[in-house]
Amino acid sequence: MQLVLLGTSLVWNCYQTVTFSVGESRLQQTSARPSCYTAAMTTVLPNDPLVDSGADPLWQRTAEAITAAVTDGRLALGARLPSERELCERLKVSRVTLRRALTELVAIGLLSSVHGRGWFVASRSSSQDWPNALESFTQTARRKGLAVSSLVLRAEVGPASLDQADRLRIAAGVSLFNLERIRLLDGIPVAVDQSYLPLALAPGLVDVDFAAGSLYQALAAAGVVLDLAESALEAQGADALLAERLSIDPGAPVLVLDQLTYDRAMHPVLVSTVRYSGERYRLRTTFKRSG
Predict the structure, then answer these.
(1) Model pTM?
(2) Can you give the pLDDT at residue 79?
């Protein structure tokens, strides 16, 4: 079974963006059509209230419904979305919720907004497969229409070591929340993610079910805004334990991403080391000459 395209974008500085994609397959996009709303409302979006998933906020479920309509071709590239009033009535959401969802989709490059004309599916020239923004594994997978899940290996509280304390600029011994997961897409293991952060930032993390939950979303719910990540990437060979977890051969290539994430005040809040299966991820880098 081959995985379809998945990516996450990491901003290293103003001139360099690093992206990852899974496998050889790529999402196929339909040819651009005139910027008009051509599909009947009944075929574009459901006429029922959004299913309450319990964990995801309503604006996010709204964004996912619109994303699904774009992904499966009900809304073509360049097509104009129905009016906000029609969307609110069809999805049974408030205008505030709808606009939050639409704004998020503009931010990731799926939609565009034209003052006085409405909301449009971004054309091929303006749409970005890879947003120039810090994005969680869960957000990226959902945006690409993939089912994301995790096998939780460890979710526990422990004292910060000297090295951990140094990276987070805290005192050694401070309580950290340690999370280790195997990340799966459509049931296939893609990466092993090890993260830690000061427990005091979000004490409620100990009660989150990370088999389905997103760490970024849990932090956002606790008021922690992740703003910038410093990242380092290197190639390694999988040891026996990692190979077993990713269902690959020992010694097979893996991409190791080490990331230190800051909040808006530039305080380090999260350290992550993610080991991606080299068979399922591809590195694509774009360099822009400065000056």
Answers:
(1) 0.57
(2) 87
pLDDT of residue 129: 44
Least confident residue range of 25-29, 55-59, 235-239, 269-273: 25-29
Instruction: Domains for the chain: give ranges and CATH numbers.
Output: 28-121 (1.10.10.10), 147-287 (3.40.1410.10)
pLDDT tens column, 68-78: 888 777 888 88
- Return the structure tokens found at 166: 């140094």
